[in-house]
Sequence to fold (58 residues):
Amino acid sequence: MRFLRTVWKALAELAGESQYSRYCAHLRTHHPERAVPSAKDFFLQRLEEKYKRPNRCC
Fold:
């Protein structure tokens, strides 16, 4: 059971599930004057940042 839990945590880390909690912790520690965004706003901002850059694959 412990092995499965470890694998599940590793997969969650690869999928980026812990990004929001790490970002909130960073904001609270280094930028206490800023408001912490909701999880939805955080992920929408990340998607916007990802897709606003031009795709130069072709």
User: Anything to note?
Assistant: Residues 49 and 55 are 13 Å apart (CA to CA). The chain is about 70% helix and 0% strand.
